[in-house]
Amino acid sequence: MLKRINDFLSGVLMTIIGGLFLVVSLILMLTDRAFPVDPAWAAILICGIPLAYLSVWRILHNPGMKKISSALLISIAMVAAIAIGDIFAAGEVAFIMAIGAILEDKTAERAKKGLRKLISLSPQQGRRIVNDREEIIGPEEIRINDILRILPGETVPVDGVIISGNTSIDQAVMTGESLPIDRTVGDEVFSGTINRFGAIEIKAMRVGEDSSLQKLIRMVEDAENKKAPMERIADKWATWLVPVALLIAIITGFATSNIVRAVTVLVVFCPCALILATPTAVMAAIGQATKYGVIIKSGDALERMGKVDTIAFDKTGTLTNGNLIVTDLYPFTADIDEHQLLQLTASAESYSEHPLAKAITSFAKEQQPELLPVNDFQMIPGKGIKACVDGQPLLSGNLDFMKEHQIPINEGVNTTLSRFRNQGKAVVLVARQSQLLGAITLSDTLRSTAKDMVRELKEARTRLVLLTGDHTEAARYFADQVGIEDIHAEMLPAQKVEEIRKLQETGRNICMVGDGVNDAPALKTANVSVAMGTMGSDIAVDAADIALMGDDVSKIPYLKRLSNAAVKTIKLSIGLSLCINFVAISLSIAGVLTPTTGALVHNAGSIFVVLIAALLYDRKFI
Predict the structure, then answer these.
(1) Dihedral of the alpha carbons of 455, 456, 462, 464, in degrees to the nearest 10
(2) Domain spanning 286-321+446-561, CATH architecture
(3) What digits encode the pLDDT tens for the residues 46-93?
(4) What pTM, to 2 d.p., does this model score?
(5) CATH number of the domain located at residue range(s) 325-443 in this protein
(6) Residues tagged active-site
(7) CATH no. of 124-157+159-206
(8) Contacting residues for 93 by C-beta, under 8 A, at least 6 apart
(9) pLDDT at 591
C-alpha cells in the first residue's frame, strides 16, 4: 500500500502539481500575502513523502555506508526547515529532489523484450524415431541418445550428431555466420539452428538445460543480473556529505546559538545541483545522439561509454554488410570464358534455393546472360547440384562433391582454392563431363566506412578486438582490410563472453558492437554495448544499450566523443555545484542567508547546472 502511494506521488503529474503549489507559495511570500495554510505544504506532502520513504527504505535495506544517501540529507534538511517554520524552504528542496529523480528515471529506462524473444526461439517439438516409427514429442521429453529426424525448414531441437543424411545448417543464431554450413554424417548440430535443405537424423547428445540454446538464454539472463547498476553520483557523495553537513550545522548552532543558521546550513548543503548534474547532461547528450540516428537507451550507458577503452566488434553485419555477392568468375580451362562460366552455372543454380545459388542467380540477372535450358535437376544437400544444361551434364558444388564424382583437381587448382579461402570467400566449383570448368567465388563485403572508423578509434587510443564465429581465414582477411590486429575467430557465444570477461579482468572497459542473436550474451556482458539497429536482430537490439539506426559504424567515434564530453560536463557541473555550496555555507554560517534565501541560492545553482548541460545538445561532434 505504501509503495503504491509512493509511486503515485512520485509520478510526473503529481510532481508538477507540487511545483505549482510551490510557485503559489513563492508569489505569496514575495507579495507579502498569506493564506491560512502555506501552499508549500502541498509540495512537502507530494514531493516529501516519496523522499522520506526512499531514505527510510535505504536505511533498512542498504548495507553499510550505503544506508546514508542524498535522500537522507534532504529529508533531514526538510524536517529541520519545517521545525523552524520555513515551509517554503522545505518544499523547495523536496521538489528539486523529485525533479532530479524523474529525470534520472526517464533516462534509465531499459528495454526488457530481448530475453522473451530469445526464449521464443526455443524449439517447440521434435520427431523421435522409435522402432522405425516417427512420433512428435515436446523438447522436454527428448533424452540423451534418442534418434531424432529433422526435416528441411525445421529447427534443431537439441544438440546432437548427424547419423544419417546430408544438409546445410543455418547457424546464425549461434555463430553469426552469414552462410549455411554444410553438414554430413558425424558432424555436430546445435539446438536452435535451422535445417535448410536435406532431411537428417541425429543422435541427441545434450538435451534440456544442457543444450546450446538454453545455455545461450541463461548467459543473457546471468549477464543482465550480474551487471551492477551504476550508483547515482549524488549518493556516492552523500556518504560523506551527510555527516559533514550535520557536523557543520551542529557546530554552527552551538557557536552562534542560532538554530536558524544551523538549519540554513542543512538547506544549502542539499545536493540538488549534484542530483541534476547527471540526468540533465545525459538527456541533452541523448537528444543530440537521436538527431544523428544513434539511440542511447539509458544514462548509465552514456556514462559507461565515456569510460570505454576497448571496443570489440563482431564481423558479419557489423564490419561487413552481411550480404553475399559474386566476387570472382575464374575459368580453369581455355575452353570457356567468364561469361560462359556464369551462363552455365546460373542456368543450373536458378532451380536451387541455396543462398549461394540465389546470390549467383541475382548476379546473373545484373549481367544478363541468356540462360540455357535445364532438365534433370537434382540437389544433393550439403554438397551441390546435378543438372543437364543445354543437353550436357553439369556439376556445381563444393570440393568434396567434385572428388566424389572423380573430377580431376590438379595442384594449380588447389593453390587457387587455397588463395580464395584465405580471402574468406565461399567457392562454388563447376564441372562438365568430368572436366573442371572453373570456380565462382562469393564473399561478404566490407562496409565502406569501416576502415575510416577503425582509424579514428585508433587515433583516439582505443584498443580494437574482432570476435567472430566465422572461419579464421575470413576473419583475418577482413580484419587486415580495416586494420584490426587482435583477432578471435570461430567463436561460439560462450567463448565471446569468456573473452570479454578476460579483458574486463585486466581492468579494461569493454564496448561490444554486434548485430546477431549470437551476440546477445556478449552484448549483455560488456560494460556497454552497441547493436546495428536496421539489419541487426531484434534480440541483439534489445540486448544492447545503444542502437545505430542507420547501421552506420562511422557513428561509433562520434558516440565515443559525445560520451566523453557528457562525462566531462557532468564532472564540471558537480565541481561548480560544490563551489556554489561552499560559498552558500559560508554565507549561512555568517547569517547572511536564511533558509528561504539559501534555498533560492542553491536553486539558482541547480538552474546553472541545467544550462551547462543544455549546451551539449548543439555542440558539434561529427
Answers:
(1) -40
(2) 3-Layer(aba) Sandwich (3.40)
(3) 888 887 787 788 777 777 666 666 677 677 778 877 877 778 877 877
(4) 0.64
(5) 3.40.1110.10
(6) 314
(7) 2.70.150.10
(8) 74, 77, 78, 81, 267, 270, 272, 599
(9) 84
